[in-house]
Every structure is written in structure tokens, then in C-alpha cells.
Fold this sequence. Notes:
Elements: E1 3-17, E2 20-33, E3 36-50, E4 56-63
Antiparallel strand pairs: 1-2, 2-3, 3-4
Amino acid sequence: RDGTGNFAVRTISIRTEGNRAYQTAVWVATVKSGGISNEFDGGMTNVLERQPDGSWKILLQSWN
């Protein structure tokens, strides 16, 4: 079956400052097309903000 599978994100670092969290991570995914599998990977950065109820919302997300 073609499509994207085996997608994973691994956190490299995360730090909090007050109600903000800063995360750097790497991602990897396998894409299968025509019976051929290729693996892709890259980096990502997230900035999250803690909400009054204690949950987190993403303010900024960058993938490459």
C-alpha cells in the first residue's frame, strides 16, 4: 500500500520559561510509492504557550 508511514518525532531539547516552552526535535517518515520506500527526515522547532487550564497550545511551528 502506498502512502506515508512510520512517522516519528524525537525531542532533542525542551525548556520552559514561564508559560512558554521551546522545543527542538527531529522527525522521520517513510513514504512508499509504486512499491518503493524512501525515508525522509528533518528538523522542527515549536514554541508553545501554557493555557489557563494547564494545557499547551502551539504558537509557532517550523518544519524543514
